[in-house]
Each structure stands twice: as C-alpha cells, then as structure tokens.
C-alpha cells in the first residue's frame, strides 16, 4: 500500500526587523536633519530657482529605526529627509537588502520624485545617480554615505568630490578598522580585511600612517601600531581635501558608545562655502554632545 506523499509549503518569510540605534546615531540623524533642512531651504529660495537639488542616501535602510534609549520607533534618514519642507526636487534611496527596499517603496508610494534602487551603492551611485547630478545641468546633491563598516569604496567619495556638485556626509568606521585592520600586529589582519581597507582608503598608504617601524631586541625592524586613531582620521581628512578635491572639510565629530569608545567619525565634505559655514555651526553645537 502506497502512503500518499503530503507536501507542505511553509512560509519562512519573517517580518522586517528594524535596526536598533544608540544615542550617537540619533545625534547623527539630528545633524543630518538640520543641515538637510538648511540645504533645501537655500536651494528652494528665489535666488536659486534655476537649480535642482537632490538628496541621495547610499545605505538608506527601511526608513525606520528602534531607539536603544526609548525602545520606541524613530525615523531613519530617508523618512527624515522626505518630511523636510521645502522638499528636495528629487530623492534617491539605495539599499542592497530586498526587505528594506520593499519598505522604502511603501514610504515613497505617493512620491513620484523619489526613486528606490536595489543593489550595491558602490556601483549604483557611479552608474545611475551621480551622472544625473552635474553642475552643467544646474543640479546639486546632498549625499549620505553611512556604511555599516568598511563597505564603501574610495572611488565613490573621489567621484563626488571631483564633480563639484555633490556634498557628502560620511561615516568613517573606526570600530571596524580597529577590530579587523589596525591591529597591534599588522600581520594578524587577514588579506580580505586589508583589501576592504585599501578599497575604502583608495590605496595602501594608510599603513604608513597607522604604523611606525622600530627595532626589536634582535635588531630587526618591526611595525608598531600608532595608538592615536586621530592620526589616521586626520590623514583621511587630507585625502578628502587633496585627492578627492573637496574644498571644505571641517574637523569631523567623534561618535562614541556608552563606554566612551569611538565608533566612528562623522565627516562632512563640500565645495560650497555657504554650506560649509552652515554645517560648521551645526557641528560646533553638537560636538560635545557626540562625546557623551
């Protein structure tokens, strides 16, 4: 006697779990909101009616986060910027995660000026977004580059700087660097992590800054890690100015966790003198709060 084979189809799809963010990330979102509002207000004024200003979010997420402090929902950067009035003329939200993209599509369902792109932002920014933000087309862009770690490529940063039409906020992921690349013994870093660091930095020159050579007891030269992460951060700021050719890069804000360890530095880079002045004033107001 044959026993019928019963095929059961069980859905394994889980509901999207929103990211939890700490105090430092809420500060970052406040800074972005204040600057994006000022940016959109300036470019919506009669003096700039001939310009089209766009907002770009490279690691957009689903538009909602959970606060570690209050445990409640807080707006993510896409929702924050969509709520700004006067609005941007256009929006580009990019994420590699399909569930987050689906959530973003719900948010922008009635916003035809908002575009959601799925994929690796390192590719999509260069092929689908940055080419649409040209000075000669009277377009300007504000771009948030907020990777989870060393997931961003220098080519994106350099392209934005040399275009002259795009300003950026940038998460400089110190925690990932310290845990996986800037180790006490540089030989302990895996080749894949070194490759990630090279791609983010744009070369291997970071190694000359992060380490210095000294002689051991046997007279051999060995690499010793610099203890001050600010040396590496300062060198990256110089790259933004000299290599990417941004005209203005104010001192970044260190964002810390509850144990006062630096998680990342928040950079801003621009070719706009007015934007730099506005942002510097905002940074100065938040600089100490980011140290909590």
Tell me what you see in this structure.
With 292 residues, this protein is of the alpha/beta class. It has helices at residues 23-43, 77-82, 98-107, 121-129, 154-163, 174-180, 191-201, 206-210, 229-242, 273-286, and strands at residues 20-21, 52-57, 64-67, 73-75, 90-95, 114-118, 139-145, 166-172, 211-215, 221-225, 253-256, 262-269. The strands form 3 sheets. A 7-stranded mixed sheet has the order 6-5-2-7-8-12-11, with helices on both faces. The chain has a 3-stranded mixed sheet with strand order 1-3-4. It has a two-stranded antiparallel ribbon with strand order 9-10. Strand 7, helix 5 (154-163) and strand 8 form a beta-alpha-beta unit. Mean pLDDT is 88; it is low at 1-13 and 213-225.
**CATH level-four homologous superfamily name:** Vaccinia Virus protein VP39
- Quaternary status of these chains? single chain
Radius of gyration: 21 Å
The string of secondary-structure elements, in order, is: EHEEEHEHEHEHEHHHEEHEEH
Write down the overall geometry: globular
Going by CATH, the architecture would be 3-Layer(aba) Sandwich
Count of discrete structural domains: 1
Strand content: 15-25%
Report a brief summary of the structure:
By secondary structure, this protein is of the alpha/beta class. It is built from 10 helices and 12 strands. The protein has a 7-stranded mixed beta sheet with strand order 6-5-2-7-8-12-11, sandwiched between helices. The protein has a 3-stranded mixed beta sheet with strand order 1-3-4. It has a two-stranded antiparallel sheet with strand order 9-10.
